Amino acid sequence: MPSKVGSRTAIRAISRIAVSGFKSIHTRQAIEIRPLTILAGANSSGKSSMMQTLLLLKQTLEAPYDPGPLFIHGPNAKFSEVKQMFFHSAGTSKSQLIEIELHVDGTELRLNYSRKKGRGYGWPAELVAQMERTAHGEITLNEHYGSEDIIKQFKGNTFWNPIISAKGMNQAEVIRNRCFLEAKLSPPGDLPVMKEIIHFLPGRPFISHLKEIIHVPGLRGNPERAYPVTAIGDSFPGTFEDDAASVIAHWVEVSDSNLDGLGEDLAHLGLTWKVHARAVNDIQVELRVGRLIRPKQGGASDLVNIADVGFGISQTLPVVVALLTAGPGQMVFIEQPELHLHPRAQVAMAEVLAKAAKRGVRVVIETHGSLLLLGVQSLVAEGILPASDVALHWFLRHPESGITTVRSAELDEAGRFGDWPEDFDEVALEAESRYLSAAEARIVGR
Amino acid sequence: MAKIRSRLLVVDASIARAAGDVSTHPTSRRCRDFLLAVREICHQIVMTAPIQHEWDKHQSRFARTWRLSMLAKKKLKILESHAQSSLEKRFPKVVIDPFILAIMEKDRCLVEAALLSEKRIASLDNSVRTHFQNYRDSLPELRSICWVNPGATDEDLCDWLRAGAPIERSRTLGYLAHRLEE
Questions:
Q1: Interface contact flag, B61 A374, Cβ < 8 Å
Q2: pLDDT per residue as tens digits for the range A10-46
Q3: Cβ contacts (< 8 Å) between A422 and chain B: which residues?
Q4: Computed from CA positions of residues A100, A205, A75, A391, in that sequence, does the dihedral angle turn out positive or negative?
Q5: pTM assigned to the model
Q6: How many CB atoms lie within 10 A of CB A101?
Q7: Peptide bond preceding B26: is omega within 30 degrees of 0, i.e. cis?
Q8: Is B74 at the interface with chain A, CB within 8 A?
Q9: For the complex shown, is ipTM > 0.90?
């Protein structure tokens, strides 16, 4: 399990997300993404909504055809009507705009979406504006901008102004490329083959980060006798739960050291010591797991189909495989990593998450696990996980308006979070107090 | 409403044990109410190594959850063990009875922590409180310590906590000693 080491070097990754106008998020709410980012709060408090914006962009980029500025019904996030995405609440005006703000490596990109005006065939949402901000200034693009408006944006930017001036660029147009806007700048003239053209692609630094997000959803399906063979690469389109079997099969085939890591992590979680994958036919992979938690002499082939053991393994396997297969800077978004796990394993899960975070993976978890949080606090206090690698975000929903607010906290070196509205302890105290009072009343009355 | 000033309290392990021990009812209920009020009103607790050791030995599940929550919320202040008063040397000189000395020695950590912080102790142990009171002349620094008992029916400690846990003369070891003499 994790040893005491210092923090990692700087890694390119999504470092901040801000959202407004989306579902229960009315005004701008921002969260910092650190190697281990914990989203917590009551049910329906808006935790998933924050991350759904990234998943919408991911599935828009991954769609096999151009689905418009936002692919609203995909494998990661499902809406049947675009209006479901916009904030609305009794007593508060409906949002007209959804703003998604992303930060990667000093570059900020803001995307503004509105509902399509009017009825009829076409994209349900419209990307009305996009703003890129770097150290050189801002550039805002709008699909309706004319050439002059666009050139004006570039002239106000300390990086682009000298370039377009030197090249005499004075013609421009905005082009939508799925969920991003791009600009094409050129000098005057009518002969396109002779012209030098500049393509401004502000979405490009974000595309790989978004497509490489590994999404392990909260509903991870029933254990199957065999899983479909899926493509293995740096990115995993859609949700990850069915990809885990193929990843393991690949590790078996190439004798990847991650296979040992997988066995170690699952043993640490008290689930099994070994996982093996074998092709059943050309389209399916069978997963077999060790019957015991620890290896036993002569027990190398004491394996059973994953459908023949408890839910804990089948629900946890995609989590552990995703964390092992992800590279530095790659985001792994896991909904309820503690699902179906015994309390002891919930604490141990903190170490599995921390191990990936220390490799530079951006582990974002949505959790209700007080023991998991306590496990993270312990790792920080023990010096195994740097406090600066952890971000805590608590989502609160106003009881009347339903509006989401995010309160963030930092752990100190003792693993303490101070004034953060975490209510796990409060709930535990209330429950314990309630039971003790009831027991006392029963004993006294006897 | 005026903001309540957060105070540093020394909480004896007797409260930690009783809070989850249904056999001590209604003391157990009063102890839980006291601990919940401390947390809710944003007071802080002080612990030294001997106090932590006593808590580790005696705390109930309820008290463990409460202590963990106080720690996470930065409301638990740990005082260095080496920061000790001279009481360790002076107790044997002024307390002749070895049985009383043993009782006072056992809870010396409470008064030391109180003297190093804000002179407020909560404990269920009335007998040791009486012993400390009886040695007020030989150990005058104890006089100003406020000693409350959450298990006592007449102390209204939730109101006291809400009032900012003031050092009311009537709750100090010095005042009680005076009253006992009368």
A1: no
A2: 789 999 999 999 999 999 999 999 999 999 999 999 9
A3: 72
A4: negative
A5: 0.90
A6: 19
A7: yes
A8: yes
A9: no
